[in-house]
Design a protein that fits this description.
The complex is a heterodimer of chains A (262) and B (409). With 262 residues, chain A is mostly helical. Chain A has two domains: 1-113, Four Helix Bundle (Hemerythrin (Met), subunit A), CATH 1.20.120; 117-254, no CATH class. Helix content of chain A is 75%, strand content 0%. Chain A contains eight helices and no strands. Chain A has helices at residues 6-26, 30-55, 63-85, 88-107, 125-154, 160-192, 200-221, 226-246. In chain A, helix 1 runs antiparallel to helix 2 (30-55), helix 3 (63-85) packs antiparallel against helix 4 (88-107) and helix 5 (125-154) runs antiparallel to helix 6 (160-192). Chain B is elongated. In chain B, the strands form four sheets. In chain B, strands 6, 7, 8, 9 and 10 form a five-stranded antiparallel beta sheet that branches. In chain B, strands 1-17-16-15 form a four-stranded antiparallel beta sheet, with no helix packed on it. In chain B, a hairpin with a 2-residue loop joins strand 7 (251-265) and strand 8 (268-271). Chain B has helices spanning 2-10, 17-38, 50-69, 71-77, 80-99, 108-111, 121-141, 148-169, 385-405, and strands at residues 175-182, 186-191, 197-213, 217-222, 238-239, 245-248, 251-265, 268-271, 278-287, 292-299, 310-311, 316-320, 325-335, 341-347, 352-354, 357-364, 374-381. The chains are: A mainly alpha (262), B alpha+beta (409). At the A-B interface, helix 6 and helix 7 of A face helix 5, strand 13 and helix 9 of B.
Amino acid sequence: MDWTVYPIITYLTTALLAGGMLLTALKKQPLLRNILLIAGVLTMSVFTAGLWIELGRPPMRTLAETRLWYSVFLAFTGLILFYRWKMPWMLYYSMGMTLLFLFINLGSPDTYDETLMPALQSPWFVPHVIVYIIGYALLAASSLMGLHGLWTVYNRKSPAKILEHADNVVYIGFAFLTFGLLFGALWAKEAWGHYWTWDPKETWAFLTWFMYLIYIHIRYKNPKKHLWALWTLTLAFVILLITWFGVNYLPTAANSVHTYTS
Amino acid sequence: MTEMQNGGKKKQKLWSYSESFSFSFGLIIAGFIIEYFTGSAKIIIPEWPVNIIFIVGYVIITAVTYYVIKGTVVKWMVSIPSAIAAVSTMTIIVLFMGFIPQNEGDGFATRIGLTHVTRSWPYLMISLYLLTVLTFSVFKRLKKPFNLKKIAFLLNHIGLWIVIVAASLGTGDLKRLNLYVEEGESERIAIDATRTQYKVPFEIELHDFVMEEYPPKIAIYSNMTGELVKSKADKNPVSIAPDLNTSVGEWEIEVNEYYPDAIPEKEKYKPMETTGAAPAALLSVTNPEKNISRQGWVTAGNAWIESKRLPLSRAFTLVMLAPTAERYASDLTITLPDGEQERITLEVNKPYSFGSWKIYQSGYDSQKGKYSELSILELVYDPWLEVVYTGIFMLIFGSLYLMLYGKRK
């Protein structure tokens, strides 16, 4: 399976997920809803697996390929969180993001490179990228909870319950983010002989990690300062977005080892 | 936590957020001023055993401060507001690093250290302060009862402490050397970045340097812009294969002959596996719409063979791109200090370890590419590796707890 079938996959996934979300909104046919949602996620997963087999390497080098993984894991995380917390907006958000990434790829496919530079042919490569994608997806979700919380405050209601949910999601996402940093450090040590070089992507990943560290400590010490926590969560998401998408466009990006696409 | 809040209110009001932030900001502002007037911190990370003396001395001083001297300052430093302020201030310093390109430029930003943040006074001062806050927070929790939650706390905080301290002070003992060895020769002299020579405690003999390449790619580019023709439906560039039939835009490309290793003979190329051979292909290219038909040889060329391209029209040319390395490796014999010999194949990402040494495949003679008779090895001596790994795995286990239990009350 390669990129030539990608448009069909995208439209099929969109139809399945949209159907599932519609049933969620209508609160009807839970069984059919589950089938549609899971089938949508599986469609993307099968395509990704097929692409992996076709390329003979993990499809994680170009932006298009990383977007594909982001879609898959956002959808998975969204599904799990939906079943765990029963929050429909969570589902709409993650599936919406999933579809957004799928459609970005449809509009601007990257060069379909079949080669992988030797430094990337490391056993740390897949776990390093996958834990980041899960971590980023969770933290993105927590930030949406933050926005939901701000909206609740605006409506003069207490966001305490929302923040309690967000706490767990941040803890889990933060753990994944830590794994990402540590796996990256172990890989860098193996491949280049040093753990950390303050490469621009590393610098921004560090900033992201620190922002969620601040959130965790604020929540620990001052659980009643809802607005502090909510704004920290929002700001942390901005930093996270820069780390994920923005670093390549910053003046500091020249010579980054994390820029592979030309 | 509640105990601190209640106790604090009764006795005296402990410094909280505004004071903590003022202190941290004051610290980096002082750092900027020192940097401006004295230049960047010329810190030389000490070698063994001075670095371990520093670490032990630091732990003793902080422990004495925490357990013996105590006082309000310690109580404040161990509090979460001071931790949050220190982390936030560190974030601000690193934000500068995130936006300002490092190690270039001059002017005011350089004078106050913002173009070399990690070697600047404000960064060093806030780092040391943050480390001390972290150290105190560990001391605070180092008492019974040790339930799972506290163990996770200690794994995360002590793990982080070890990683920071060992990875930064350990660099004093770190040696990164390059060793150049030619096929058929032995070498035991390596050089560092300043070209200082070191005699390493082992000898390396290179038998053979091998490189495998991906098939080269062919591409059509525009003579006007010099850029590759953008094509959504087709691959451009496309990897070559013996009987490839493909199209790029209006052009249909057919591979008639393809040799991964070929040498020129008259106007043609013939297959021959010899030093200096380059990939070459005979292609038929047609453009049915414009009724153009071309046939000709292309080669990516190399240091010995001139590259050859195929002009298609006034506007377009077909080229073969130089193949990229898929894998390269050195066939070596290493003679260890005790005289023991070991024959190994060294390739990227598969280093050879010996004591605190690691030997990496680093490079080759890039002019000669796969015909290089030179292999460049990187030798890394890092006696602190196990210590840093211990810290990293403590953090991994601490994070696993966060992942499994979330925020536990």
